[in-house]
Amino acid sequence: MMEYPYMISNNKIPAIFEKIKSAEIPQRFTVDFLRRLGFSSTNDRAFIPLIKRLGFLTQDGAPTEYFNRLKDGGDFGVVLADRIRDLYSDLFALNVNINQAVDSEIKGAIGRVTGKDDATVVRYLNTFKSLLPLANFEKRDSLFPIETEKKDRNTEEEKKTKQPYIKQEMVDFHYNIQIHLPATTDINIYNAIFKSIKENLMEQ
Q1: Same domain? 75 vs 118
Q2: 152, 42 contact by CB (below 8 A)
Q3: Does 174 map to a domain?
Q4: How many domains does the chain have?
Q5: N or C: which end of the chain has fewer CB within 10 A?
Q6: Tens of pLDDT, residue by residue, the chain (204 residues)
Q7: What is the pTM of this model?
Q8: 51 in a structural domain
Q9: Same domain as 112, residue 17
């Protein structure tokens, strides 16, 4: 069954992300670095496995390209939404707009996906809900917008190039008709069938 990361002090999540925006990018995001950001509580340490699971850090704590994009105020919400969709993909598979669902629906989905007890499901739910207001789900993320744009242009050019060929191939139609004859020794039945075919199809 799926397990999700969670924090007890979920109210710290927005504040820590705000500090990340203004702080330097560390070589390793460690407990000591978190303490230097001003978050020294033992409960705050759960933020590190959370952003690891979100894809912002490697397993050894090194920032990924996603982490670097958190520094861009305009990109922050978009990349966070993308990472939320990835981490909670099982929930979004049940409802593509699970981020807009009521608490009871989200809780039910988490319970079915994880199979955990109610107390654990509530912890998962609270952390998930704490992330949602920070994310921008209106705009889909793309790490390579230029490549995507180029691909779209190439696709349109290919359509234009192939279009005359496709039209030419579709001019002529052929139909294969299969007739299943009944098992009978009465030749009159066969004669009636073929007469009907001649009258209704052959003369069209």
Answers
A1: yes
A2: no
A3: yes
A4: 2
A5: C
A6: 899 999 999 999 999 999 999 999 999 999 999 999 999 999 999 999 999 999 999 999 999 999 999 988 789 999 999 999 999 999 999 999 999 999 999 999 999 999 999 999 999 999 999 999 999 998 775 553 434 344 455 555 555 444 444 444 444 555 556 666 666 666 766 677 777 666 666 555
A7: 0.68
A8: yes
A9: yes
